[in-house]
Amino acid sequence: AKTRGKNTHELFQQHMTDEASRRMLLENDLRAALDEHQFFLVYQPQIDIEQGHIIGMEALIRWRHPERGVVSPMAFIPVLEATGMIKDVGEWVLHDACQAIHAWQELGIWRDGMKVGINVSASQFLDASLTHSVRQAMESTGVDGQVLDFEITESMLIESVDDTIKRMHALRELGITFSIDDFGTGYSSLTYLKQLPVDVIKIDQSFIHDIIADSSDAAIVEAIIAMANHLSLGTIAEGVESTEQLAFLQQAGCQRYQGYLYARPLSREDMTDLMQSTATL
Ligand code: C2E
Ligand code: CA
Ligand code: CA
Ligand code: CA
Hints:
Elements: H1 2-35, E1 39-48, E2 54-65, E3 69-71, H2 73-83, H3 86-107, E4 115-119, H4 122-126, H5 130-141, E5 148-153, H6 155-159, H7 161-172, E6 177-183, H8 189-195, E7 200-203, H9 205-209, H10 215-230, E8 234-237, H11 243-252, E9 256-257, H12 268-279
Parallel strand pairs: 2-4, 4-5, 5-6, 6-7, 7-8, 8-9
Antiparallel strand pairs: 1-2, 1-9, 2-3
């Protein structure tokens, strides 16, 4: 029994060590990533369903790891959040996106009313320095807050609704608008929706995925769009991959969409080319 106990203990420790060391390696690598310019942003166009043209885009972070190649944000955003590094990386995201927008404005391909959606984590959003960071990004790049839309999730509201609303009002004064990301996947959506100064609902891609085959998903999406329209909120469907899905969304009255059907997230250069070619149409 003694031997078995020892083995179990060793196994357990071994497991812990593997987990912990993997996490620590990731953490160390992430600390170097910002200094060594390994992060970059890609941009996924958002399309007006009626007009068919680009009305904005979502900025999505990528990490070019020296050995592992391009790493998905799903693998490292949680680590950045847990370690507090999300604050610095979030600042970098804001600054880099504003810089890109400024460059597009200089090229004359940025149309009035366009916006870049920025994903903001809960810890980043509730940090007291956020408004200051946003102002700094705007000032150093020379862009206006009106070009930014912050994507927040319902999960952030669980911690502190009042603080979140206060923060939103402060940022709205800079011209920033708000979208609720992954709408429908959190809970208490409807209670908060009434109180929150939001502009747009992003319908989660999990509902869009089976919209053609699954009649409950179809009904949920129709209901979300109808509700948003009644509340004068904008709607974006995420993860649109087929023309059938797009046709469904159009007849349901959805305003905008993003997804592989139109374009995957693009490098800054490819986004520039796309904007250039669509601007002259
Ligand atoms: P999200 O905000 O829900 O972003 C949408 C995800 O769907 C993106 O994954 C995008 O590449 C993917 N996507 C877009 N169109 C389609 C489609 O047609 N089909 C499918 N299957 N997927 C599609 P990505 O880029 O891997 O980002 C994953 C998540 O990481 C994001 O989910 C967001 O929560 C987080 N994230 C990304 N960038 C940032 C950032 O700068 N800051 C923070 N805090 N989080 C970020
Ligand atoms: Ca998002
Ligand atoms: Ca989303
Ligand atoms: Ca998501």
